[in-house]
Every structure is written in C-alpha cells, then in structure tokens.
Protein: NAD-dependent dehydratase
Amino acid sequence: MNVLILGGDGYLGWPMAMYFSARGHDVTVVDNYFRRNAGVELDMGMLYPVPTLQRRAAIWRERTGRDIKVVIGDLRDPEFMRGLLTGATAYTQAADPSFSGAPECVCHFAEQPSAPYSLLSYKHANFTLTNNLLITNNLMFAVKDFSPETHIVHIGTMGEYGTPNIDIEEGWIEIEHKGRKDTFLFPRQASSIYHTSKIMDTDLMWFGIRTWGLRMTDLMQGPVYGIETEESEADPRLRTFFNYDEVFGTVVNRFITQAIAGYPLTVYGKGGQTRGYLNIRDTMQCVYFSAMNPAGAGELRVYNQIMETFTVNELAEKTARVGKSLGYDVEVKSVENPRKEAEEHYYNPTYQGLIELGVTPHYLTDDVMESMFRIVEQHKNDIRKDIIFKGLKW
Ligand code: USQ
Structure:
C-alpha cells in the first residue's frame, strides 16, 4: 500500500512510518518540524536529541534496506498539500520524478497536539485552531479533488467527549426524541482549545464524507505512553521523541521521569481524573489495522483507541511502587490543578471496535513500566527539573 503520513516527525508519526515500512508498504512522511521548533520556542526540550527526519530515514535505510521518503513543508499551504496527491511540486507544478501515485491511505497526525500549548495565550490558541483546521481542510479538498477513494485515518482524541455522566459510545449514539429515532455523533464537550480543534476537525470531515462520499476512520485516542517500538529496537537513534515537560509530556512519561529525577509526582488536584490509556505499541497496531481495513465510501468510522482506564492517583501509585522496587525514593504530591477539568467523575467508555479488528493490547503492567524506567534512566543526568512543572494555567 502507498501510505502518506502527515506529521511524520512527531511522537507517533515517526514510529508509525517505520511500522508501515517494516511491513513492506511504500511510505512518505511529511512534516514542518513544528514540534521541534515549539520545544525550542518554549525551551522545553526532549529527554535525548533525536536526529532530523532525513537523518532518521537514512538510518532506517542502513538498518533495513527500506526507503521512507521524506518531504519537509507546511501543510497549511494548500498547494503543498495538493502536490502530495498529484505529484506536482508546489508553485512550479513540475512533476516530482519520485512520485509513486496518489496514496491509498493518508494518516493524519499533522496537528498541534498539546492542550496546555493551546492555552498558553491567545496566539497559541490561534495557532492551534488555524494549524489544525487548515491542514484538515486542505487534506479534505485535496482528497476530494484528486483521489476520493483514498482512506483517511485521522487521530482524534477521547478528550473530544469530555467526561459525561453517561457511558461513552464509539463515536455514535442513537437518540429517541418525541417518539422518533436517529443516530448522531456522540455529544462532544472538550476541556481545551486543542481538544476543541479536534471536535471541529471531526465536524469538518463529517461534512466532506456526507457531501462527497469520502472515507475516514477517526481514532479517538487517549493519552499514549511509551518509548520503544519493535522497529526502534534496531537502533536507539530511531527512537521517537520523549517529552516529560508540562506542555508536551503525557502523564505516564512524566511520572516515570519525575520518579527517576527525584521530583515528587505532580498529581493535579484530587487526582480522580480518569482517562483511557494506551501503549505506543498499540497506537501502531490500531492505526495499522484501521488502514488495512478501510472505511467504506461515505462512511465516518469511529473507534475509541484506548486499552484500559486509570485515575491519575492510580498512575502515581503504580509509578511510585515500581520506582521504589527499583531503588528510587518516589514521593507523590498533590499540586493545585492548573487545568479546568472534573477531578472526580463518572467514566465508562466503550472500546471494543479495535480489538474486534484484531488489535492485541499491551497493558501497563509493572514489567512494562520497569522497561520504560530502564530507558529513561540512561538519560538521568539530562533530565531538567525546571521544565517539569511551571503551573501553566488554563
Ligand atoms: N495530569 C496530572 N499531572 C501531570 C500531568 C497530567 O495530574 O503532571 C493529569 C491531567 O490533568 C489529565 C491527565 O493527567 O487529567 C492526562 O493528562 P495528559 O497531559 O497526559 O494528557 P492530555 O493533556 O489530556 O493530552 C494527551 C495528549 C493529546 C491527546 C490526549 C488524549 O497530549 O494529544 O489527544 O492525551 S485525551 O486525554 O484522552 O484527550
């Protein structure tokens, strides 16, 4: 299959590119290095340096003999996006000799992914909205105009649903009202501008799907943890970004780093916030199985991409237990919640669809956590305590 990965430099995009490539698919990755540049802008770097996308593709070629084609550019530019589907180089319209035809699948990871980043200021909110929505809109029109059969796999987020006081279905809900019934997208109520941009993505794509018969799978993903995937085991330089700062680090990755650095685990508020979590290895499987089993024409297929649920307190307790067993003196501390979110709430999402498609979950066992400790502790001396918690408020 010919696969185009938008956002191929990111935490999930790069391992996804290797995953497809390792299985014999023809992969092109596109990125504008936003995540790297944002780290520089905020002075919130990664745990270890990660080679450029071009360099990583060269290392991958050395290790496996397989090619991943790298294109650097800004997908907010519609001509650039359209060129990826037609093979025309933006502006000159000259044909790109390495173009291998319109992709059968586009994986859309090219979004500003951080809730705290989206609320740093009105400028960061504007960036999040314009970046995420323009890229989604450019993709939708490029697919409609040049390759309407192409299947789009979009990374959505469980945070679109919020924390409603009813069970969360996989994307859709049947509603009976005054004696009549219809099926609608499950109600959405996000708690950040970033999460709201994802709701808007869904609405935009749902319009395109209804109107032009496009096909999309929306993967409502929970917070991801992990570093290593099967493919990066070949060479540590192929490892994905690992952030533990307050803006780009997700909670499990942060807690493990904090435990190693001797920084008390920052439980926000009461710590009863419950989310659905998954290992980065399962993100690989979920996207892959979705790509290999495309949605039908005119179908918006939605899966809840989580493997198990935890409260923040449970994650802190687990990290402390595993950390102590490895000789770390781990302290857990409740800090004033910088976010506006429910700290005690009902949470019961359905997440069967991806399992039925063939995904085999990796759970957050003590062994899995220990293997993450082992990698992070190799970089113990590089951990910067000053970027762990600044209390960036909503
Ligand atoms: N939390 C703490 N202490 C910390 C960090 C986080 O208590 O030091 C809490 C947060 O308040 C939140 C939960 O842990 O209740 C998860 O926070 P997170 O930072 O790991 O995840 P979040 O901001 O929700 O965003 C992440 C990804 C985003 C993805 C989302 C899935 O950055 O791209 O869409 O997870 S979901 O949360 O299901 O919407």
